[in-house]
Write a structure and sequence with these properties.
The protein contains 14 helices and 13 strands. The strands form two sheets. Strands 1, 2, 3, 4, 5, 6, 7 and 13 form an eight-stranded mixed sheet that branches. A five-stranded mixed sheet has the order 10-9-11-8-12. Strand 3 and strand 4 form a beta hairpin. The chain starts with 13 loop residues before the first helix and ends in a 20-residue tail after the last helix. This is Nitrate ABC transporter substrate-binding protein.
């Protein structure tokens, strides 16, 4: 069964797009080295107290492998924030390995973060997790978990981003100063996306008409620049900055609205494990999940180390993916400003899943996934929302201020 385009974490082919427009890009230069050390941005780590909450050596694998669904970016800051100084980079496999360090404390194990997207031929994270059981943690969107549930079931153990940064964006000058998707789309202009779930969500609410749906978006800005009447998908954590500062042919603000405000309520990239590992790796997860909860908060409060690792990897991986320091900083600012990272509304705990929200996601999105051919009706009917997540490893004392 093919994976629908909308499940891809990123559809922006920035190098192709910006190069084609001769944009001025503040990008980090590529590097072909095969092994390198991190910038010295954290102090020398002390050893975790034996048996304490940060001592992972006795309960976790010697190397905790985490799989991302796209190339390094600040939305993944919680993972990269834990990669301690002295890490090594495999430029062929697009992985980074180093000591797993929590606020200057070495946990006694290593962390390996694997890049997704082109590095794995765009394979879905659940498929990768079942192909390679060395992977303990994967970043799996809730809708992707629904699609994979029949054959490659995963269980989310904590959220990182609480709400999706997915947006539709538009040119305010071409849409009478519109401030919402409904206002911007009211003139009947095309809604350009890479898949049909987002437009069908808007169609079901009467925000757009069927004639406006255009799923031809290939990830470049050419059409938006040349035809500013369209509405186009993007990410609140990237495109508004890139279009204003890194695409010289545009060079101005875009209007946008978060799709999460209009029912796109999936959990974006929560950290998940294979279903069996909820039991088999429970001792490790009891310590690791609270570390991941806190790491997301720590990253947003002090992103310097995590972003330094991310920018270093983008340079060394040299895949054509461009990611500037300006975008990295903007992403952190937007995650905080827009409340994309927030405590669970129901419990007040950071990283905890809301059972009602999860049930709503399954109810609302499975019809779209069935229509898209991503999942059969029989498989959709068999999904129990409570099996897609667990809060058993959550530390309920961890909350954002």
């Amino acid at each position: 069964m093919s994976q629908p385009a909308f499940l891809s974490r990123r559809v922006i082919a920035r190098t192709v797009a910006i190069g084609a427009l001769a944009a001025t890009v503040a990008a980090v230069a590529g590097c072909s080295s095969t092994d390198a050390a991190a910038p010295a941005t954290t102090s020398a780590a002390t050893t975790a107290e034996k048996g304490g909450p940060l001592d992972l050596a006795s309960v976790c694998p010697a190397t905790v492998v985490m799989q991302q669904d796209w190339q390094p970016e600040s939305e993944h800051g919680a993972m990269y924030n834990l990669v301690g100084d002295g890490y090594t980079v495999d430029t062929d496999k697009k992985t980074v390995t180093g000591p797993l360090v929590v606020n200057g404390t070495d946990t006694g194990v290593k962390i390996e973060v694997r890049s997704g997207g082109p590095a794995v031929n765009f394979q879905p994270v659940p498929a990768l997790m079942y192909l390679d059981t060395d992977i303990l943690i994967g970043a799996v969107n809730t809708d992707a978990a629904i699609v994979a549930n029949a054959d490659q079931p995963t269980v989310a153990v904590t959220s990182q981003l609480t709400f999706s940064p997915q947006i539709l964006m538009w040119d305010p000058a071409s849409h009478n100063g519109a401030t919402t998707i409904k206002e911007a789309a009211s003139g009947g202009d095309p809604i350009v996306t890479s898949g049909d779930v987002i437009p069908n969500l808007l169609l079901s609410q009467g925000i757009i008409t069927k004639s406006q749906i255009d799923t031809s978006y290939e990830g470049t800005p050419q059409r938006f620049v040349s035809d500013p009447k369209i509405l186009q998908q993007g990410f609140a954590t990237a495109e508004p900055y890139i279009y204003k500062n890194e695409i010289s042919q545009w060079g101005k603000d875009v209007g946008y609205q978060l799709l999460s405000e209009l029912g796109y309520n999936i959990y974006p990239e929560p950290l998940a494990v294979r279903k069996a590992d909820v039991t088999d790796k429970a001792d490790c997860l009891k310590k690791l999940v609270p570390i991941m909860q806190q790491s997301q908060i720590d990253f947003l409060n002090a992103p310097e180390h995590g972003n330094a690792v991310i920018l270093d990897l983008v340079e060394k991986y040299d895949t054509g993916w461009t990611y500037s320091e300006g975008v990295a900083q903007f992403s952190v600012e937007q995650q905080k400003k827009l409340g994309l990272v927030a405590n669970d509304k129901a419990s007040g705990v950071f990283g905890q899943f809301d059972p009602d929200r999860m049930a709503s996601i399954v109810k609302d999105f499975t019809p779209f996934l069935v229509t898209a051919g991503s999942i059969t009706q029989a498989a959709a009917s068999a999904i129990d929302p409570s099996e897609l997540y667990t809060n058993q490893f959550i530390d309920t004392s961890i909350k954002m201020n």
